[in-house]
Amino acid sequence: MATVQFQAVRKTFGKVVAVDDVDLAVADGDFVVLLGPSGCGKTTLLRCLAGLEKVDSGRVVIGGRDATDLPPRRRRIAMVFQSYAVFPHLKIYDNIAFGLRMQKEPKKAIRERVDSAASLLHIEDLLDRYPSQISGGQRQRVAVARAIATKADVLLMDEPLSNLDALLRMEMRAELKALLQKLGATTIYVTHDQVEALSMGDRIAVMNAGRIVQLDSPLAVYDHPADTYVGGFIGTPPMNFLSAEVSPNAGTPVAEVSGGSFSLGNEAASLVGRKLILGIRAESIVVEPEPGDSLIQATVVVVEPLGSHNLLTVQTGEDMLKVSTPPHLFPEPGSSVWLRLEPHRIRWMDAETGRALPLPAAVPHSVAG
Amino acid sequence: MTATRISWRPWLSRALSYATAIVLALFVLAPIYVITLAAFSSQTRVYDYPKDLLPRHLSTDTISFFIHFGGMLDALQRSVYVAAITLVLALVVGTPAGYALARFAFRGADTVRLTVVATRAFPIVILSIPLAVIFIRWGIDDTVFGVSIAHTALALPFVVLTTASVFAGVSPELEEAAMTLGCSRLTAFLRVALPLALPGLAASAIFVFIISWNEVFASSLLTLRHRTLPAEVLSLLDGAPLNFRFAGGFFLMAPSLIVILIIRRYLFSMWGRVVK
Q1: Closest residue, chain A, to B196 (C-alpha)
Q2: Residue B242 lies in a domain
Q3: A349, B18, B112, B190: which one has the fewest Cβ atoms less than 10 Å from its Cβ?
Q4: What is the CATH number for A355?
Q5: Does B274 map to a domain?
Q6: pLDDT confidence of B273, banded at 50, 70, 90?
Q7: Domain that holds residue A114
Q8: Which of A43, A80, A87, A154 has the most B C-beta neighbours within 10 Å, making it the best mutation to test the interface with B?
Q9: What average pLDDT does range B196-209 have in this prediction?
């Protein structure tokens, strides 16, 4: 077990900056997910930690030891690859024992460690087979068993579940999470699947264009995205964004969007006069059948029943919104509905930078304007 | 109607593929058989017409005469040495080059690839005379080693290009995985990439052996008294009787068949039948 620190790590491939001065500290036993779309630099960052890529500048510190110039084998890490990278010429037993043999462990200790890793992943019956004789899901288990068998300080996982089919992935997700909790190993986990990130990580580092744009707990990343990029990337559907303005209307601030206006609490006074983006999650919008106070009118475009809820696409003014409603509510496409945008669930972003503004309640008056 | 047609299809395709295999096998085996038969026939029988295709009158007279004919066994031995040295040299030099071409995107990799192929564009006829001059100057003319390095030069392009494609088929992630599990670059190569590339390397080895074994021109030019078997056979058998020629043909053929049989088992995938 160990801590991990990236200190201003930079990695370029030719003119492309894959990792752009990233700082990240991972506590002992922490499970951090690097999340981002393909090409955002998350895998490169992981490979810099593994020692498979040489950093251009910055330091990589593992367990308090500067590992920047160490080869992979001296970093006390273990890695699970996206392709599993199970050795085809070795039986499953020898695959799992590979790292232990390289460490010159005694035969008996190897046997025990392989058996315990195999039983943790329920592959005891496969030890005598070759990788070509087992399924993809089983190979994935072998890759994880091989990584945990060496009892490395840090466990690195590069999209380990992305090659599994949807059902198996969900099953393996829960199993892997339970396993990693039991082991308590410091884990860095790379994925482009936000559901995986939200469901597994202690903390999520959302990456974009080689930088970490937000590092937070899954709930905070979901509820309080640092900018429009994070809000638009995380969540199914992603957060709704509308351009908005706040005007002082006889003391109570009023939010104006293209489809109408509604009143806000007094704390929104600080937002008056700024160009804003209003961000709100689909489930934070309440659909009312009748017009009323502080409701904005919208026209239903599409209704998608999803079983647990219905997903509506509605048009209000110039904006298209995704709204989730209880499963019994089936408004006709083309009909009018009225939306309540819960003021305390609204995230305000600066229209120019896209960065989230601090919660209105916390904004001192001097910031406004 | 349709049911019978469907059930006939796999049968037909299997019959066809077996028929093709039999034809191909006969194509290769028939000359081998005829040469072997003739080599083990007595002098008078070789001239028989029509030929008796059954081994009814076997005799080792021709073969034993041939073997004991001046220097034939020595030439055979030299050929084996030359082919073996060529095989080792070409693989030791060519495999790392193939690996480098497959793994590293270094500047000028394409140029190297092209140059390697281009070396084969020079006919050995043109190269042989200057080569002989240099060899004489170095004092390695008329030696096993001299012929070996000439053959190595001939075989290298094949080795580099075939091993490059073999290593390109071994995922780099496998070696990276080995490196995270305690291997250095070198041990990762030796423990993972090399065993996985073995079938391809075996094919390459067979190829090199045969290139060297069959090579006559460079051998004839670079040697005088210490000829390899093909060069010796060629120079001696020009005016020899037919049965001697068959015996010579048999001797040229037999060792490479043995080598192919030995290396053959590495050719086929070894790990649970399928190798990806």
Answers
A1: A89
A2: yes
A3: B18
A4: 2.40.50.140
A5: no
A6: very low
A7: 4-231
A8: A87
A9: 88
pLDDT above 70 (res A365): no
Q: Are residues A259 and A226 in the same domain?
A: no
A80: nearest CA in chain B? B177
Can you give the pTM of this predicted structure?
Answer: 0.79
Residue after which a domain boundary falls, among A164, A199, A231: A231
Contact assignment for B181 to A130 by CB distance below 8 Å:
no
Interface of B with A in 150-189 (CB under 8 A): 171, 173-174, 176-184, 187
Determine, yes or no, domain membership for B57: yes
Question: What are the backbone angles phi and psi of residue A107, rounded to the nearest 5°?
Answer: -50, -45
Distance from CA of B267 to the nearest CA of A (A): 14
Shortest distance, CA A196 to any CA of chain B (angstroms): 23
B275/A88 CB distance under 8 A: yes
Q: Among residues A214, A231, A248, which one ends one of the domains? A: A231
B4: confidence class by pLDDT, cuts 50, 70, 90: low
- Please report, as a single letter, which amino acid is at residue B121: A
Task: Tokens for B68, please give them.
Answer: 């004991």
B129 in contact with A at a CB cutoff of 8 Å? no
From the list A85, A99, A133, which residue is nearest B173 (CB)? A85
Kindly state whether residues B54 and B150 are assigned to the same domain. no
Complex ipTM value: 0.83
Confidence class for position A228, pLDDT limits 50, 70, 90 = very high
| Locus of tokens 């019994």 | A328
Residues A183 and A286 in one domain: no
Q: Residue range B192-221: average pLDDT?
A: 88
Q: Are residues A279 and A138 in the same domain?
A: no
Kindly state whether residues A224 and A249 are assigned to the same domain. no
Beta-carbon contacts of B41 under 8 Å, excluding residues fewer than 6 positions away, are B57, B58, B59, B62, B243, B246
Domain count, chain B: 2
Please give the average per-residue pLDDT across B10-36, as a whole number: 90
| pLDDT (tens digit per residue) in B54-72 | 777 778 777 787 777 777 7
CA nearest to A133 within chain B = B272
Band the pLDDT of A279: cuts 50, 70, 90.
very high
Which range of residues forms the domain containing residue B147? Answer: 70-267
- Residue A366 confidence (pLDDT): 39
Task: Quote the pLDDT of residue B271.
Answer: 45
Chain B contact for A14 (CB, 8 A cutoff): no
d(Cα B169, Cα B139) in Å, to the nearest integer?
42
Question: Is A109 touching B (CB cutoff 8 A)?
Answer: no
Helix (H) / strand (E) element for B251: namely helix B242-267
Q: Distances in Å between the alpha carbon of A32 and those of A3, A160, A198, B246?
A: 11, 14, 11, 75
pLDDT, chain A, mean: 90
